[in-house]
Amino acid sequence: IPPEKILCSTLSTTIDKLVAELGFSYVDLVEGLRDGRFYALKRILCHDKEDRQEALHEVEMHGLFAHPNILRLEAHCMVEKGTKHEAWLLLPFLRRGTLWSEVEALRDKGTFLPEERIVPILLGICRGLQAIHAKGYAHRDLKPTNVLLDDEEQPVLMDLGSMNRARIEVKGSREAMALQDWAAQRCTISYRAPELFTVESHCVIDERTDIWSLGCVLYCMMFGEGPYDLIFQKGDSVALAVQNQLRVPASGRYSAALECLLSSMMAVNPQDRPHVSHILDQLEGLQPAPSGQDTTRI
C-alpha cells in the first residue's frame, strides 16, 4: 500500500481549511477518522531532488526529539504529483496558534505581555532550544511565528527545516559565501544573527545564533514587534543595523533583570552571548514565587 494511502486512511477525506501558506508549503487542518482529533497537515512542494532531500531533512530533525517544547511529528510520507512530489508531514494542531498571533492581538488593543507571562513562555522556549543544542544542532530560524502556544500557554517550537549542526567551522572564502547564501535563504532576515550576514573566511559559527534570535523573540514579546521588523519593512539595511549594540527602550513595564537578560542575548559578538543553560538559570530566578510562600528577606 502506498504510504500516502496509509496516511490518508487515518484522516477524513475532506480538508477542512487552509491554515497557512508558507513559501513552498501549505498547512491544512484535517480531522482524524479514528480519533476525531484535528491535525495540521503540512504539504511541502518538492520540485526537484534537492527539495525532496530538504523535506526529508525536516522529517529527520523531528525524529531526533520527544520533548514537550518541540512539535512532534505524527506521520509523514512522500506523495507523487505527476513529475513533482509533495512531502506530507502530519503534525498536532494547536488551536491557539503562534506566539506572534498572541503578541499581535495584544498590540492591536494597545497593550503588551506582562512579565509574569513572558518569563514562563521564555522558559519553555529555552527548554526546547536546550534539547536541540544538547543534540548538537541549532534551530537557525527561531521567530515568533515559529513558536506555537498550547492550551496551557506552553510554547512549542516548530518548523525544523532550517536546523543544522550547531558548530560550523568555516575554512576559506568559498565556504563562508556558501554559508552566507544558505542563511539568506533559510534564516529570516529580521531575526538573523549578525555573524550570518557577513560570514568571515575563517571562523566558527555556533548555536549562539539561536540566542540572538531568542533575544529578538523576547524583544517582540516586550514591545510588540521584533527589534528589526520596522527596519526591514521600511527597506533599510538590517545587515547594517545589527552591527550596533541594541538599545533596549525604557518602558517601565519590566524588571531591570529581564532587560539586562535581553541585552546580553543581543550582544553583536557571539562570544559575548550566554549559552541557553545560563539563560535558563537567570529565568529561574525571575519566576514568581509560589502563592503563599513568604519571600521576605531578613
TrEMBL record:
PANTHER family: SERINE/THREONINE-PROTEIN KINASE 16, SERINE_THREONINE-PROTEIN KINASE 16. One of its GO terms (cellular component) is Golgi apparatus. It comes from the Eukaryota. CDD domains: STKc_16. Residues 13-286 form the Protein kinase domain. Keywords: ATP-binding, Kinase, Nucleotide-binding, Serine/threonine-protein kinase, Transferase. Signal peptide: none annotated. InterPro entries: Kinase-like_dom_sf, Prot_kinase_dom, Ser/Thr-specific_kinases, Ser/Thr_kinase_AS. The keyword NAD does not apply. This is non-specific serine/threonine protein kinase. It catalyses: L-threonyl-[protein] + ATP = O-phospho-L-threonyl-[protein] + ADP + H(+); L-seryl-[protein] + ATP = O-phospho-L-seryl-[protein] + ADP + H(+). It comes from Chrysemys picta bellii (Western painted turtle). GO terms for molecular function: ATP binding; protein serine/threonine kinase activity. Its EC number is 2.7.11.1.
